[in-house]
Every structure is written in structure tokens, then in C-alpha cells.
Amino acid sequence: MLDPRVDTFLTVCRTMNFTHAAQLLHLTQPAVSQHIHTLEEEFGAKFFRYENRQLSFTESGKLFRRAAAAMRHDALLLEEAIREQGKTLHLRFGATLTIGEYCMAAPLLQLLRQQPDIQLEMHTANTQELLSLLDAGEIDFAIVEGNFDRQAYESRVFSTQRFLPVAAPDYCFSQPVTTLDSLLGERLLVREPGSGTRNVLERALASRNLTVDSFARVTQLGSLNLIKRLVLAGVGIAFFYQPVVEEELASGKLREIPLADCSLSHDFSFLWQRGSVFSPELEKVFSLLQNAQGA
């Protein structure tokens, strides 16, 4: 069973507010403060500091947070393992939108065929939301396309995917297209700031001293499928991971825009809490899912 003080600490980490943490835990604010103070005394270090009326971590607090998150996950998983001993395996995991929608069907199909009694729960969210679920012990692992703290999590490369510009077959470009710069006269259809695909594109543009706003027209949408439908209709161009448009490219409904100076790819990462005692089991899950991608 997890030390209640550690649970209090992690709730404060999640809210970065003692009052909100107390409300979530159904405790008084002095009780929350006392839990944190006792932990700090026990470890001989301050975990939080106030700066400009905002709570922030000390370096010791960041270190303890990583350890506490692993402790919480392991405690919950151990309780479940003991309770469910001899029953079916229960996996809870998260995936970012692109991965969940376009890359998990084959691995999950293979897993369900190999272990038909397994129970699966997949949460789809952006990278930061999945990391919060991981820190809270609510999922066992995540497969993400965004950035994460490599000191806080064990990670493996789940797959490496091409990231390519596409257009409708009859799309009329404003000028001959040979380089990334020559695309700037087009309408760019793009996800919202903070999304994984947006981040990959922004980094590629930044390496050339460009931004999303360098395009003549920008349409920002929160749905990959909606962006794809608009590109199919010929109203603009977009950048997608290859699995998202594989069928359309194969059928000729979309075409890749060849660029002489721009060949992009990006890793999808399988990650879990660093220091978890369940690391060997999660390594096995990673291998099983990764090997099943092409099945």
C-alpha cells in the first residue's frame, strides 16, 4: 500500500496547488502541508518553492517526483496483480492520436489473437496528458510521438515513421515545387499547437528559419481526418505520418510532394516509469507489440 504522504505529494505535483490538492484528497490544507513537510524532513530536502506566488519544484522535488511516480504505479499494479492472480492479464496504456488511430490495429490484433483472454484499455490523448496519466499510475505505459523527460522514463523506439507532405493528384501549385521553400505559397492545413505532428513540422521549419506562419495561408484544425478530407478535396497541402495516408497514396487519391531538400522521419516512443519493478514485464509487452506491427 502506498504511503499516504507520497500520494499527497503526487497530488500536489499534479495540481501545483495545495488548496486544490486538499480538495481532491478530501483533506484540509494544513494536513496536506504537514504531509509535505514530514516528507521533506525525512529526506532532508525541500521539494517545492514559491516564486512569484507560483509553486515550483526544487531539483530534489523533481528527483523525488520521478521516484514517487514509479512507487505509485508499482503499488497499484502490485495490488491488482495480487487481486487478479490466476485471472486474465489486464493492460492499461495510452497512445497519441496518430499512433492510436493508425498504428495500433495490427499490434493489438496480434496480441488479442495470441492472448484472447487479455483485457485491454487504451486511452488516446496528447503526449503531456498521457505522461500525467502515467505519473498518476493510471496507465502502465504509453506510446507517444511528442517530447518527454528521458530521465523520468524508460523508453524504447517503437517505430520510426516518415513524415511527408501530400496533396491531391490534381492540386495546382502556385509555382513549381522542388524544395520546402517553394511550398510556402500554398495553403497549409495543420494541427493545433502542442500536437505531435505540429511539433515535428515546426522543428523542420525552424531548422530553415521558417515557421508555420511563413506559409501564404494557414488553416488550423484539431482533427487529422478533417485535415485529410480537405487535402483530398484539393484545398491545400498537409504533412502526415506515412501510416495516416498509406491507403490514399496507394490508391492514388493523394500523392506525395517530392522535395529535394526535405526528408523527414520521427520516432514513436514506448515508455514507462523509470525504476519500476515491473520493467521486465513491460519490456516483454514492448517486444510483443513492436514485433506485431507488420503482422
Beta-strand percent range: 15-25%
Number of helices: 11
Runs in which pLDDT lies below 50 for 5 or more consecutive residues are none
Tell me how many strands there are. Answer: 11
Shape: globular
How far the N terminus sits from the C terminus, by CA atoms, comes to 40 Å
What is the helix content? 40-55%
Structural class given helices, strands, pairing? alpha/beta
> Could you describe the largest sheet, including whether it forms a barrel?
7 strands, mixed
Give average pLDDT, whole number. Answer: 87
Q: What is the C-alpha radius of gyration, as a whole number of Å?
A: 23 Å
Which H/E pattern describes the elements? HHHEEHEHHEHEEEHEHEHEEH
What this model shows, in words?
The chain has 295 residues and is an alpha/beta fold. Helices cover 43% and strands 21% of the residues. Strands 3, 4, 5, 6, 9, 10 and 11 form a 7-stranded mixed sheet that branches. A two-stranded antiparallel sheet has the order 1-2. The protein is globular. The two termini are 40 Å apart. The mean pLDDT is 87.
